[in-house]
Write a structure and sequence with these properties.
single chain; alpha/beta; Rossmann fold; 6-stranded mixed β-sheet; 5-stranded parallel β-sheet; elongated
Length: 222
């Protein structure tokens, strides 16, 4: 069994992409995305939006309206598509992570970063100012008993964040799922670290993209 545990609508999207690539992926969200109240800065004080997750666009609410004229710097294709669907204009799409993306920008620039409660800190390059607003959270959900039983029989689990890795590990321990029966395919090395020890196999994708993660899952299955 190959399993993705990310919240919806990403869970269904990843399962669909995996099946299109010939992988038998099941989806069981172990997180629920919930919007948070946030205070928007003055639009005139911001030059562009910095967005690292499609959920940030979906959950930002009406406060996003003030920034619809601002260009968007997006971490990847999925996030860019969500921004465009929301009526925003994407100026650039990163190919790795937000840090490498902002290092390509021309200073001076003032960015509004919309993000989730769990996010990676960024180092501001010279002349680049970043205002960060947390607009959503991914609330953890319990591992269902039926899924725990399947995991005891062996599985490959896709992990896309450090928070997901920690929660999945904790739930496996709570439900007495032996880590030795589960292999982990992680989107990045820091997610491998967050998952901890004792898994049957743990590997990280060659790059931070869904396609690379699915390619890794295919390789691990063989």
């Amino acid at each position: 069994m190959i399993l993705t545990i990310r919240p919806e609508p990403g869970c269904t999207a990843t399962a669909r992409a995996g099946r299109a690539a010939g992988l038998a992926i099941e989806g069981q969200p172990l997180f629920e995305v919930r919007p948070l109240v946030w205070e928007a800065p003055a639009a005139e004080a911001i030059d562009a939006l910095l967005i690292g997750s499609a959920n940030a666009v979906r959950q930002a609410g009406s406060s996003l309206d003030s920034f619809r004229a601002k260009p968007v710097y997006s971490v990847g294709e999925t996030t860019a598509a969500a921004a465009q669907a929301a009526g925003l204009t994407v100026a650039s799409i990163g190919r790795a992570d937000l840090q490498s993306l902002i290092e390509t920008l021309t200073a001076p620039m003032r960015l509004l970063r919309l993000t989730g409660a769990e996010h990676v800190p960024l180092a501001e390059p010279a002349g680049i100012e970043i205002e960060t607003r947390v607009v959503y959270e991914s609330a953890p959900l319990p591992l269902p008993d039926e899924l725990a039983a399947k995991l005891r029989g062996g599985a490959l689990v896709l992990l896309l964040s450090a928070a997901a890795a920690r929660h999945f590990a904790s739930e496996c321990d709570r439900c007495e799922v032996p880590r030795s029966t589960v292999a982990i395919a992680a989107l990045a090395p820091r997610i491998v670290d967050a998952a901890g020890q004792g898994w049957r196999e743990v590997r990280s994708a060659a790059e931070r993209t869904e396609a690379a993660l699915l390619a890794l899952a295919r390789d691990m299955c063989h």
